[in-house]
TrEMBL record:
GO terms for molecular function: monoatomic cation transmembrane transporter activity. Residues 2-118 form the RCK N-terminal domain. One of its GO terms (biological process) is potassium ion transport. It holds the Pfam family TrkA_N. This is Potassium transporter Trk. Residues 135-218 form the RCK C-terminal domain. It comes from Heyndrickxia oleronia.
Amino acid sequence: MKKEFVVIGLGRFGGSICKELAEQGMEVMAIDVDEDRVNEFASIATHAVIADTTDETVLKNLGIRNFDHVIVAIGADIQASILTTLMLKEIGVKNVTVKAQNDYHAKVLDKIGADHVVHPERDMGKRIAHHIVSNNVLDYIELSDEYSIVEIAVNERITGNSIVDLNIRAKYGINIVAIKRGNSMIISPQAYDVIEKNDILIVIGADSDINRFEKKLS
Ligand code: ADP
């Protein structure tokens, strides 16, 4: 069954979500107060609507309650973002994802019942910083303040060794959850799997432990 989404705010972030959902074959209603932005999405979204979502009757008339998931991607106007989120939860939308501009905004969104709060700029900043600091770190996903999943490129310091040789779990307290090898993916590698040149390890663990492992590679 096709899922139905609403994206409110068609800036860079909301616009990119809208395009991606449409490409994946989802039904998307795209909403913005700005007519030009809405026109831009008329041929991409299933419906593109000019509306101010801080007006409760607008939300009701659009039947937003019946959609599976609403994404609030209103940028700089924090007040509009908060008010929209509050009303979406009040009218009973089950799944509301909201883009936060800063930590205070995120706190308020949590309090008023936003189901997911995302910080794309902050998260991307962190990911890029990790990549810049360590050449081996290709990508980074923060799981909590302390734990992450990191993609690490291997080098000659560890290639040719099996996972058991490297003793990574005991020495560093981290787990290799998968190895990317060319186009294939070895999920849950075995202790005797040997690490080859150009492999990419996907590891999970505490940031401090992952850092120690990164240092071994650099
Ligand atoms: P980004 O950083 O993702 O590019 P922007 O601030 O450029 O964010 O985009 C936010 C969008 O949200 C703008 O297109 C703006 O017109 C829209 N927007 C702002 N307030 C409302 C509102 N009350 N109702 C609907 N859309 C809104």
